[in-house]
Design the sequence.
């Protein structure tokens, strides 16, 4: 049976005493990492520093003196950095074995690993840190975050996630120790990497989280430089774990060293051509960074994405951020113009070119000379118009209908489509040469459902704009309305979201937007969330019911939520009475988490029973 590290250490030190310990910290024998060295009929302990080099060999300068002739004078070394160890063979004559395998170069060295040099055996023993109840593995922390968000939505309570970027390399143990001195017993944290961690604060709203963030910064910066902290609170900054964590990370990115920032501070509002574009999703931020770089060139650009995803905003940015910004931006929706008129709209016509052409008219390409032409839904252009557009791009010349003279135009072309142009090329509906000419610079806009952070940011921005136009006080979203907005698929993307928010602002008189105020596609009847699964109804007769139910003759009903609350309050009061006022026992009897039990107890005015 294998002996424990503590037993072997005790036996070895009492029998033989440690060898060279000059560089080892005091107390290493009591619980630090060490090497157990077995040679012949004796063994010894060599305590290890957290950082440094321990030399193994036959020479007089070795930290671990090996007595067998198979060992070189400087045979191998153990390199330690912040408690992590590596074994390095120093080109020894007879080699070094790690767990029976010859070492070539450097190999990680962990607790229980056996190093063999001739007939000498060196066993690595690492200190086993005390398991922290609040510092969790990342997977467990994510599960807790998901659970807290679910409770937050169900009980209309806040939950906060903080992302911490450490300002300098530091030992995880030191950072964890600093954190744990500040965390409450219900708070949890976990490392994403050596320089990044997440902190979960249940029941903490934005204000409380802001105070906590500063306390954590003060505690951690002593061991990890000037950390940056991002704060995101459910449901305002996200209704699922991925969105809330992403919001916290984005906030940490924009926070100054030694300071905290909120998720709202990580939202960017761009004024482009008199219109406001809100960016919160990391992918969209990078897309518009690409747009800014492309705007400085004269390349044709193809913008792709679903209908309503914001292609027009990207096209406007390509123009407004370009050297052509002082010249016109001319837009043509190719799908909205009859095919017979597209060419005359684009290229213009001469008098008498066709029936009804009473006077010459310049086309959009001429009108936009010096500026930008935006062809929306270019996939709907006719084959002849595609050929002429390609020639105009390549020669910078156009020919009006009914004319024989070419006219020079100086245009930059931006095109957009929701279609798969590669598939259109294969099907013969779109010219391959035009596709390659446009597709050299492509901007792809993800659909709104893949940008959950932006759903809430855009909702708030559209709501504020609509209220300001109507001259009414600001409106806010309830927790349930927030969850429904973020869980809806938004097939019409940003355009659909804007229309929904403007409809709400125009039709709802209340300041708080509830589920009932949302259009049917977002909140279909019968799909509401119950606060909790109610216990079986009591045997006693229910209280008198208030109002007759439409369509149910002879029956009257109260709102279901009111009945559930009444039953919930009664059961909590009964459980407290049966448990003698001991909240823990009462919560266990109802199979409810203690924090949820206390929350509901306070909500129903039963706090006076606390003992």
Sequence:
């Amino acid at each position: 049976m294998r002996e424990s590290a503590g037993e072997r250490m005790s036996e070895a030190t009492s029998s033989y005493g440690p060898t060279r310990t000059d560089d080892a910290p005091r107390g290493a024998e009591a619980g630090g990492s060490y090497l157990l060295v077995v040679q012949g009929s004796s063994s010894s302990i060599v305590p290890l520093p957290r950082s440094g080099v321990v030399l193994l060999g036959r020479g007089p300068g070795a930290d671990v003196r090996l007595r067998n002739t198979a060992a070189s004078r400087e045979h191998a070394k153990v390199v330690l950095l912040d408690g992590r160890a590596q074994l390095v063979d120093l080109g020894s004559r007879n080699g070094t074995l790690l767990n029976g395998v010859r070492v070539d170069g450097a190999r990680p060295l962990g607790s229980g690993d056996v190093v063999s040099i001739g007939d000498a055996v060196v066993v690595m023993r690492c200190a086993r840190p005390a398991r922290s109840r609040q510092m969790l593995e990342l997977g467990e922390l994510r599960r807790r975050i998901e659970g807290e968000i679910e409770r937050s939505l169900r009980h209309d309570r806040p939950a906060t996630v903080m992302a911490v970027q450490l300002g300098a390399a530091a030992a995880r143990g030191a950072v964890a120790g600093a954190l744990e001195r500040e965390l409450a017993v219900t708070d949890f944290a976990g490392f994403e990497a050596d320089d990044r961690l997440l902190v979960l604060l249940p029941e903490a709203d934005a204000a409380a989280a802001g105070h906590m963030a500063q306390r954590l910064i003060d505690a951690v910066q002593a061991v990890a430089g000037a950390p940056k902290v991002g704060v995101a609170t459910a449901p305002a900054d996200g209704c699922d774990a991925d969105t809330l964590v992403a919001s916290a990370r984005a906030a940490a990115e924009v926070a100054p060293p030694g300071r905290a920032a909120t998720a709202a501070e990580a939202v960017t509002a761009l004024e482009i051509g008199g219109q406001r574009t809100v960016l919160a999703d990391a992918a969209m931020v990078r897309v518009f960074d690409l747009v800014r770089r492309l705007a400085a060139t004269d390349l044709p650009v193809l913008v792709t994405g679903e209908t309503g995803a914001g292609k027009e905003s990207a096209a406007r940015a390509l123009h407004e951020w370009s050297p052509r910004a002082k010249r016109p931006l001319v837009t043509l929706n190719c799908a909205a113009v009859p095919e017979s008129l597209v060419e005359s709209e684009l290229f213009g016509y001469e008098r008498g070119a066709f029936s009804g052409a009473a006077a010459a008219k310049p086309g959009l390409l001429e009108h936009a000379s010096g500026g930008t032409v935006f062809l929306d839904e270019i996939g709907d252009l006719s084959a002849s118009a595609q050929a002429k557009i390609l020639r105009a791009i390549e020669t910078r010349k156009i020919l009006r209908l009914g004319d024989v003279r070419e006219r020079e135009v100086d245009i930059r072309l931006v095109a957009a489509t929701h279609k798969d142009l590669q598939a259109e090329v294969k099907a013969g509906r779109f010219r391959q040469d035009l596709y390659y000419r446009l597709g050299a610079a492509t901007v792809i806009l993800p659909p709104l459902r893949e940008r959950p952070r932006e759903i809430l940011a855009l909702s708030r921005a559209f709501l504020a704009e609509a209220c300001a136009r109507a001259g009414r006080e600001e409106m806010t979203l309830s927790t349930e309305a927030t969850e429904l907005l973020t869980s809806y698929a938004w097939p019409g993307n940003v355009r659909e979201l804007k229309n929904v928010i403007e409809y709400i602002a125009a039709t709802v008189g209340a300041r708080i937007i509830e589920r009932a105020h949302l259009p049917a596609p977002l909140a279909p009847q019968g799909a509401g969330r119950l606060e909790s699964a109610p216990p079986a109804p009591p045997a006693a007769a229910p209280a008198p019911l208030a109002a007759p139910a439409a369509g149910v003759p002879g029956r009257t009903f109260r709102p279901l939520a009111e009945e559930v609350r009444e039953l919930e309050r009664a059961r909590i009061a009964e459980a407290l009475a049966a448990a003698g006022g001991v909240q823990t026992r009462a919560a266990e009897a109802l199979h409810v988490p203690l924090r949820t039990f206390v929350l509901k107890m306070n909500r129903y005015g039963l706090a006076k029973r606390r003992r």
In short: Residues 1-31, 526-555 have pLDDT under 50 and may be disordered. The two ends are 50 Å apart (CA to CA). The longest strand covers residues 159-165.
